[in-house]
Each structure stands twice: as C-alpha cells, then as structure tokens.
Amino acid sequence: MTAETIIGLDIGGTKTAVIEGTLAGEVLARSQFATPQGFAPAWTRLCAEIERHLAQAQQAGRPASALSVSIGGPLDIARGIIYSPPNLPGWDAVPLKELLTQRFQLPTYVEHDGNAGALAEFYFGAGRGYQNVIFLTMGTGLGGGLILDGRLYRGSSDLAGEVGHMRIAPDGPVAYGKAGSWEAFCSGPGMVRLARHRFPQRWGADTPLDARALTQLARSGDADALAVVCETGEWLGRGLAVLVDILNPQVIVIGSMAVRLGELLLAPARAEMAREALPGAAAVCQIVPAALGEELGDVASLCAVIQAHRQQSIA
C-alpha cells in the first residue's frame, strides 16, 4: 500500500517554496527559489519545481494526491483566482487553481497565506487547544488569519484578515497605497523604512539594508537597531489592541519577524497593547511567536488540502 502525499506551494513576493508533505503536517522534502518578477517567469519556474517533486515522490513510493497553495491576497479562494497581490506584481486575475489543475491533473486547493498560517498554528502549533486564534504573517507584508469559535473565518468576499490595510496613524509610511497603514509600520520593509527615517546618517537611502540584517543587528545588541525594533513593537501593539477589542481572542500568534526577534519585538508590543486595549480583553489574550518557527510557511503550504480533508471528514 502506497502512502499518498501533498505538494504544497508557498508563494511569496520574495521567495517561493515547494514542499512535499503529509496530512499530518509532516514535511518530507522541500526546495526554494527567489520568486521571479511577473507571472510568466514565476509560472515556468514553479512548474519545473513541481514536476521535480512529483517525480521524486513517485520514485519514493508515495505519489502525490493533491496540490495545496498558500499565497497572499486578495484572491477568490474557491475559484483560486489571484487578484494583484501587492507583493506579486503582474499576478493580475491569474486563475491559478485552474492552471495548476489542468497542468498536473491533480486536485488543487488554494488558500490565503494568512488563513493557511492560522490553520497551521491552529492544528499543529501555538493555536492548539484554543477556539479563538488570530494569526499574523508579519514578514514581507502584514496579513492575518482568523479562527473564530474553532472555525476558519474568511469573510463575505474572502477578505477577512487583511489587517495590514488598517490605518493606525493619521500619517506615516505608505503600504496598500495608504499612509499610516499597519503594514507600513509592521513589516520587514516597514522596519527598514523606519530605520532609515530615524537614523538617516547611518542608514541613508544609498546604504544597503534589509530586515534580516536589521534583525541580526538588534539580536547582537546594536542600540540603533534595538530602538527601531522597540518602536516597531509599539506600533504592533497598537494594532493588536484594536484586534483584541473587536475579536476578544485567546491567543495572537505572530510569524516571521516575531519568531526571529522574540521578546525584543513582543515585549514592547504587549506593553502597548495593555495600555490601549480593554483590560478584560487584554488579560485573556496571549501574544506569542509562531510555534512552528521557520517551518511555518512549509506547513502552511499544505493546509489548504489539510483543511479540505478535515472538513470532508467532519461532513
């Protein structure tokens, strides 16, 4: 008897990973490449990697039974159509589900990356045992996923969880075409912009700097980097307070930057949230980094299929 597996696709603006995994969230194989700019070159590279993983899985005696996609929104989840995500220029009304299904003749499921991350932590990580969970991506962008009363909440048009669009200041850096949006303050690129604004003599426009380098400096104790991370944490806490007041969750799980920065980011975020949120709501909500750590994206890439399988099992 052969064991069937899932081919998961974690498609981001910076990198794309192709995963072979199981319904239990176990990662068996992975590859990663820098996401090419524009849909056509990205599609060519993606198909080549999928073909390679399918062949390897077949040779290992575990043929893949489905494709699972985690990708940023906005998108039509049921039809798997991608509508111009800010971090994927050129992906305009791309019928990704249909294209993958036709190309590989396998059932294909597509999920918003915020939702996929929420499902991964809910089933296998820091959200286990809770019924009301918010997940935040906080990497290249800031997206979210909501588990309410034990169920994934997608909203009326698959836009629930687009928290990065929320304006938390009357002015400031721009994301989603809007100054003062939460993503503009609380994302990797946002943290870099803040560093350049606060310390222009050190990190001027011509000085190479990215979020990973800034994170490494903060972890090593660099005073300027720590100040930037602390201020980012405070902005994070202000947005968290809004979510806590509205949704009254038990836990908010934060990926990427929270995993890498830990308490350097989360301590000021918790303090600001406590100042801004209703005391009764803040008291019952934990703010934690993703328990799946750097494997979060890999496990999340499998979750569109895992969720469909669990829903079918319940039905």
List the helices and strands and how they pair.
Layout: E1 5-11, E2 15-21, E3 27-34, H1 39-59, E4 64-71, E5 75-76, E6 81-83, E7 92-95, H2 96-104, E8 108-112, H3 113-124, E9 133-136, E10 144-148, E11 151-153, E12 174-175, E13 178-179, H4 182-185, H5 188-198, H6 211-219, H7 223-247, E14 251-254, H8 257-261, H9 263-276, H10 279-283, E15 286-289, H11 296-301, H12 303-314
Parallel strand pairs: 1-4, 4-8, 9-14, 14-15
Antiparallel strand pairs: 1-2, 2-3, 5-6, 6-7, 9-10, 10-11, 12-13
Helix pairs in contact: 5-7, 6-7, 7-9
Key features of this structure:
single chain; 315 residues; alpha/beta; Nucleotidyltransferase, domain 5; five-stranded mixed sheet; 22% strand; globular
Textual characterization of the structure:
- With 315 residues, the protein is an alpha/beta fold.
- It folds into two domains: 5-112, ATPase, nucleotide binding domain (Nucleotidyltransferase, domain 5); 126-291, Nucleotidyltransferase, domain 5 (2-Layer Sandwich), CATH 3.30.420.40.
- It is 42% helix and 22% strand.
- It has twelve helices and 15 strands.
- It has helices at 39-59, 96-104, 113-124, 182-185, 188-198, 211-219, 223-247, 257-261, 263-276, 279-283, 296-301, 303-314, and strands at residues 5-11, 15-21, 27-34, 64-71, 75-76, 81-83, 92-95, 108-112, 133-136, 144-148, 151-153, 174-175, 178-179, 251-254, 286-289.
- It has a five-stranded mixed β-sheet with strand order 3-2-1-4-8, with helices on both faces.
- A hairpin with a 3-residue loop joins strand 1 (5-11) and strand 2 (15-21).
- Helix 5 (188-198) crosses helix 7 (223-247) and helix 6 (211-219) packs across helix 7 (223-247).
- The longest helix is centred in the last third of the chain and has 25 residues, at 223-247.
- The protein is globular, with a radius of gyration of 19 Å.
- The mean pLDDT is 94.
